[in-house]
Amino acid sequence: MPPVNRRNHLLAIDQGTTSSRAIVFDARGAIVASAQREFDQFYPEEAWVEHDANRIWTDVLAVCREAIDRAGLSAADLAACGITNQRETTVIWDRATGEPIHRAIVWQDRRTAERCRALADDSTEAWLQERTGLLMDPYFSATKIAWLLDHVDGARARAEAGELAFGTIDAWLLWHLTDGAVHATDATNASRTLLFNIHDQRWDDELLAFFDVPAALLPEVRDTASDFGTISKDLLGAEIPIAAMVGDQQAALVGQACFAPGMAKSTYGTGCFLMLNVGETAVLSRHRLLTTVAYRIGGRTTYALEGSIFVAGAAIQWLRDALHLFEKAEQTQALAASIEHTDGVYLVPAFTGLGAPYWDPAARGAILGLTRDTGIEQIVRAALESTCYQTRDLVGAIGDDAPGPRELRVDGGMAANDLVCGFLADILQTPVERPEIIETTALGAAYLAGLQVGLYESLEAVGALWRAERRFEVTREAAEVDALYDGWCRAVARVRCAD
Ligand SMILES: Nc1ncnc2c1ncn2[C@@H]1O[C@H](COP(=O)(O)OP(=O)(O)O)[C@@H](O)[C@H]1O
Ligand SMILES: O=P(O)(O)OC[C@H](O)CO
């Protein structure tokens, strides 16, 4: 056997909403070792969500050390590091001390909903969509930044004087990993702020003025795969080049090797994020889906359309934790497979309203079509199927904006469920592929870092590494699944509040 080239390993930092992880990959994209830490969520008021940015930083450092240790490697063996992160979450810190001025405001936080309503009208929404690809919504960073500047004593004056720095989590980690030497972000993360013009790829002065955000706060925006500096020697024992930063859903698109227009991935965790590569021209949605930067490499930008479902795996958690129908999420597959169909039962998991393409925040969930024969199996199956029906809603909306996918690559915890993947293929009338490496987010960050330092020649070379663990073919006729989907549409109509 040829000797293992120790210098060919890659470190991926995957900083998510509930946990921070580090994974060491070999050059073929196989996992060598990993480490993970969960951290506290803070809910200071109804619909507010905060994170302790310092805790995120110390956890990230700890999991990097653990993962490298478990891999039996030292930092000197790592060719590069890639960072992927929960997007939109907003941190502002003091440039002199590196201390945050407040806890991070998380992407889920709705405290600026009123502010967004006050700023929004039809022409503003159209203007924002045209420049940023996004919608006026508290989800994105701009109104979170303004909130911090207006609610932390003296922050606005200090920001204008250049004393403070803003970053999404990627930039916050980069600052600390480089000992305060680099204040930068990448184009995917910048494209989630509402301050970034996705066409000319720069911070937009008119957007900054509109949201009242001083330019002095902002990081430099670099390519997704580029030189972001090096991890300071003091931290891990040797310098490691930081060669990629990328938002987590975009990282999954890369980890799933969706590099050609028309390729799509869907990540099924608590919620679901579907992303379609649309190529090098931004496509604006007619269904209020998001247009976002998929990646920027060598100065060339690839765009994506993105749609999200608020509740996917969360419906399974609800059946488990609130209704106590089973103990483990994995049991749902056997329960659902023990019957052929739900007998007309539909579960619409609109616990927090309906997202794309309905956009009905006041809608609430329902289980419809109950009879005396309905049991746990029908309800569980209906919950699993609801994720597939919602995906068809999204694919239908996306298909109206751009050519839809010929197959769908899936990942995330719920994609482990064969029944979900099979039903999804039938409902979409499109084959569904599940990859061998399910950690697509971290893998995408590692691939981009490897590309930047020359471990891979091109995206095509990365694409050649992608392998399906299983492909789910379409097994039912369109007419049969259309009838099922019609039933779903009627169920959704019953719970909707908005027209
Ligand atoms: N075999 C399964 N069948 C159905 N749902 C599952 C299965 N395994 C996990 N889940 C669901 O997937 C979610 C966890 O996926 P994960 O990707 O870890 O989510 P997140 O990153 O959002 O925390 C949970 O909501 C869980 O209920
Ligand atoms: O951390 P996750 O996986 O829940 O992803 C969060 C998204 O990036 C929010 O836009």
UniProtKB/TrEMBL annotation:
Activity regulation as described: Inhibited by fructose 1,6-bisphosphate (FBP).
Keyword Nucleotide-binding in record: yes
Claim: Nucleotide-binding is one of the keywords in the record: yes
Keywords, ordered alphabetically: ATP-binding, Glycerol metabolism, Kinase, Nucleotide-binding, Transferase
Chain positions recorded as sn-glycerol 3-phosphate binding sites: T17, R87, E88, Y139, D248
GO MF, any single term: ATP binding
InterPro entries named among the record's database cross-references: ATPase_NBD, Carb_kinase_FGGY, Carb_kinase_FGGY_CS, FGGY_C, FGGY_N, Glycerol_kin
Functional note: Key enzyme in the regulation of glycerol uptake and metabolism. Catalyzes the phosphorylation of glycerol to yield sn-glycerol 3-phosphate.
Name of protein: Glycerol kinase
